């Protein structure tokens, strides 16, 4: 939604502006109103908005003075001037300030609508351009950090983004949220701090700090995340110091594992998960030395004895060296690899139980017992079929039976005792669509059936399929069907 502030010293006009258009239906929302320029100026420092519609002649601070003051602080704000008189000098001043239009009172609804729709096209175009630039930038940085782009290619591509300057030593952070569209959060972090925030291919936000700014900015970034997420579930983990870019990929993998541990484990186990993450930097090389790359291949070929014999040998040695932590690290690494490839059919509670056992294992025997349990799960599983995990099957069944009820990832997470962020990512991975899009598609499909086979009013049908707000229903219907519910009904009614 494009956010609008309305300013006029005449109460009747101010009130009328709120209702002269169906703002939400055309993609706008009124976020603030003010009775004079000074009040509007104060509000502009407290709230975020995109469009200012203001009367030109007001006491204390005129509309032009207001636009000039606000533009110095918020350059991207678009402005529309309202006036009771056609005054050429004021129009010229307004044009110099970059106003979008100058409308005479009484306001002509069609003229205002035309101006607003033109402005929307302009803002949407700018937003799309900005987002496209961000996507290309993020893709280049991501490929470079993951060692999929040469240094020379990266320097050539990143030269188009002079504000990007990544120097070692640095710190990385990984942010996973319930938000399906996190671009606003990404922009806010970059606007309010010197932190570089990039969107990963999986839709998470990777944070990049210089070592110098890390201590000063990590609390500020955390505060921004808390504010923007506004009660929604989120997980943030921060890395050890990274001295060489070549290590970024390994550090990112550590952050992924730390995030997943936090999402899967109950709060009381977060402390030991955090300890695992912190200790990983000191024993990382030792852990990697023991990781056998073809273990997954042996598992795929059902060569389970080969896997057991290899792990038994290294775990016995590590137990003798009293290095249980490395045993845990190896088991976690293998577990997450197996989870994504072989253990998709496990119940959520079984995942949590296995991780819990790994974190609290005491030595060689415990580790081998856990691996045996994983192998039994793999043996029991049907191979070669692409299928959905039990939790996603359960959630899909629930959605189809209760689509008309109010539901979100948070309510589903609470109902099925699963972290909503983890559920959202699992849903996207297995269903190949976000939860919100899937639910909207389902509701719109049910609405179409009712429109075709009944004479009920469109607004009532919207409520029947789960949309408590009629305006939102009309908007979603038009988004997916490119017609209003009434238009669609006429087009598809049987003769």
Question: Would you give an account of this structure?
Answer:
With 495 residues, this protein is an alpha/beta fold. The chain folds into four domains: 2-107, 3-Layer(aba) Sandwich (Rossmann fold), CATH 3.40.50.2300; 132-264, Alpha-Beta Plaits; 289-380; 390-492, Orthogonal Bundle (Arc Repressor Mutant, subunit A). Helix content is 60%, strand content 10%. It has helices at residues 11-19, 37-44, 63-73, 88-96, 109-145, 151-158, 183-192, 211-229, 248-264, 270-290, 295-300, 304-320, 324-341, 348-359, 364-380, 390-402, 409-416, 420-431, 435-453, 458-464, 470-481, 485-492; strands at residues 2-7, 28-34, 51-55, 78-83, 101-104, 170-177, 196-199, 205-210, 234-238. Helix 2 packs parallel to helix 3, helix 13 (324-341) packs parallel to helix 15 (364-380) and helix 17 packs across helix 18. The longest helix has 37 residues, at 109-145. It is globular. The model has no long low-confidence stretch (mean pLDDT 85).
Quick overview of this protein structure:
This protein has 495 residues and is α/β, with parallel strands linked by helices. It has 22 helices and 9 strands. It has helices at 11-19, 37-44, 63-73, 88-96, 109-145, 151-158, 183-192, 211-229, 248-264, 270-290, 295-300, 304-320, 324-341, 348-359, 364-380, 390-402, 409-416, 420-431, 435-453, 458-464, 470-481, 485-492; strands spanning 2-7, 28-34, 51-55, 78-83, 101-104, 170-177, 196-199, 205-210, 234-238.
Keywords:
495 residues, Alpha-Beta Plaits, four-stranded antiparallel sheet, globular
